[in-house]
């Protein structure tokens, strides 16, 4: 398992384009928003929590259809399935790898996007936490979705349709946490609810992904 | 009575469906330790499918596969551990060097990377990224996975595709050592392989 995670990270370092494109996408969406909303900083700040979450999840979705697709195409997936690693373990490691190479850079880019969206600085820390949790939820559901759509034609279109509805609670609680922090209220209850979602999804989604991988 | 199992593998009445098409049915064969079995037949006869079925990558539609007399697929993990599968694709990551590609599998299966590279004549290319290797060199790197750590069952799908004559000859001692240790080779091929006394299974 550690060998597989190590390989994931090494590949991400050799191919930084995937990570960079997700981060660029995230920042660009945040940069486009003010142009659409017009000259109203207050309105922009009101929209910021939801816009941040939506932009981050869409950005994290970008490299997802290659999560197992690349492994299946070059034959590596066959070798992994025969290697004695449990399929659910493979899926869990891939989800963790996806979060480290996509979710974590998005968290680090959050202050830039938050500044573009005129989010009050006191909410930036909460925004980073909320985005970290939301992107982790997307990574585990995304691994299940990527495993299920593997080999399906137009799997890249199917994948967001499967994964994004499952991420709605993460958006609701994440945005609520950021909004609470921006208004000087306690963000902790919302963050805990978001963390509870992750705690529920993290053990279950890889099992579903593993079953899908094994089922040819 | 025989002491010990006579056959390492016994396939009984295997059938395989792919995309609602019957690829083969009623297929039965046995392989004893040290034997080699060449799978031959026209394109689409089901050679690759049979290898994937034997590896457990395609679920068996009908029939049974016995390993030393017991059902092979009861414990998928144990079955995976006793075989090495070489598919059409080389399962290499272009961004990693030859050594890194092999080192990943060495961490999964165990084994000595430098010795495996040397066995396939790849030592000089160890630090080149797999993306710059020629197709024959990539095939040799995929074959190097076989010799990393011993496993009794080798399932090879067109192992010599893209290899030059010298590289094919290089496989001869590897096959011989594997069979001398009681291992078996099942290879789908259109080209002659250095497998003396190999039996042929025509699909």
If you had to describe this structure to a student in words, what would you say it looks like?
The complex is a heterodimer of chains A (216) and B (203). Chain A is mainly α. Chain A has one domain. The radius of gyration of chain A is 18 Å and the shape is elongated. Chain A is 81% helix and 0% strand. With 203 residues, chain B is an alpha/beta fold. Chain B folds into two domains: 1-82 and 152-203, Rossmann fold (3-Layer(aba) Sandwich), CATH 3.40.50.300; 90-150, no CATH class. Chain B has six helices and nine strands. In chain B, the strands form two sheets. In chain B, strands 6-7-8-3-9 form a five-stranded parallel beta sheet, with helices on both faces. Chain B is globular and about 45 Å long. Chains A and B meet through helix 1 and helix 5 of A and helix 2 and helix 3 of B.
Structure summarized in a few sentences:
The complex is a heterodimer of chains A (216) and B (203). Chain A is mainly alpha-helical and 216 residues long.
Structural descriptors:
heterodimer, A: 216 residues, mainly alpha, 10 helices, 0% strand, B: 203 residues, alpha/beta, Rossmann fold, 2 domains, 5-stranded parallel β-sheet, 4-stranded antiparallel β-sheet, 9 strands, globular
């Amino acid at each position: 398992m550690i060998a597989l995670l190590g390989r994931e990270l090494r590949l991400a370092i050799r191919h930084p384009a995937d990570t960079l494109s997700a981060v660029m996408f995230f920042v660009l969406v945040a940069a486009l928003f003010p142009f659409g909303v017009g000259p109203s900083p207050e309105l922009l700040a009101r929209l910021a929590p939801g816009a941040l979450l939506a932009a981050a999840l869409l950005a994290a979705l970008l490299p997802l259809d290659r999560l197992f697709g690349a492994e299946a195409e070059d034959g590596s997936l066959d070798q992994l399935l025969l290697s004695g690693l449990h399929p659910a373990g493979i899926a869990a490691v891939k989800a963790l790898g996806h979060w480290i190479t996509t979710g974590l850079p998005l968290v680090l880019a959050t202050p830039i996007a938050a500044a573009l969206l005129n989010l009050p600085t006191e909410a930036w820390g909460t925004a980073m936490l909320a985005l970290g949790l939301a992107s982790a939820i997307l990574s585990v559901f995304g691994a299940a979705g990527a495993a299920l759509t593997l080999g399906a034609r137009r799997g890249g279109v199917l994948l967001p349709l499967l994964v994004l509805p499952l991420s709605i609670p993460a958006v609701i609680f994440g945005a609520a946490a950021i909004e609470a922090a921006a208004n000087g209220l306690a963000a902790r209850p919302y963050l805990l609810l978001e963390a509870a979602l992750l705690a529920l999804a993290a053990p279950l989604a890889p099992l579903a992904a593993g079953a899908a991988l094994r089922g040819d | 009575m025989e002491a010990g199992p006579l056959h390492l593998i016994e396939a009984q009445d295997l059938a395989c469906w792919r995309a609602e098409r019957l690829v083969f049915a009623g297929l039965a064969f046995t392989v004893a330790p040290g034997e080699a079995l060449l799978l031959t037949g026209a394109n689409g006869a089901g050679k690759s499918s049979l290898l994937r079925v034997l590896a457990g990558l395609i679920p068996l539609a009908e029939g049974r596969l016995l390993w030393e007399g017991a059902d092979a697929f009861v414990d998928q993990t144990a079955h995976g551990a006793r075989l090495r599968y070489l598919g059409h694709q080389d399962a290499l990551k272009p961004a990693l060097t030859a050594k890194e590609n092999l080192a990943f599998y060495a961490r999964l299966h165990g084994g000595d990377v430098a010795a495996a590279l040397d066995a396939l004549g790849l030592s000089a290319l160890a630090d080149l990224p797999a993306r710059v290797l020629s197709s024959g060199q990539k095939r040799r790197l995929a074959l190097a996975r076989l010799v990393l750590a011993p496993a009794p069952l080798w399932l090879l799908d067109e192992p010599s595709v893209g290899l030059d004559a010298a590289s094919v000859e290089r496989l001869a001692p590897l096959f011989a050592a594997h069979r001398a240790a009681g291992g078996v080779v099942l290879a789908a091929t259109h080209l002659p392989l250095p497998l003396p006394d190999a039996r042929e299974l025509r699909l």
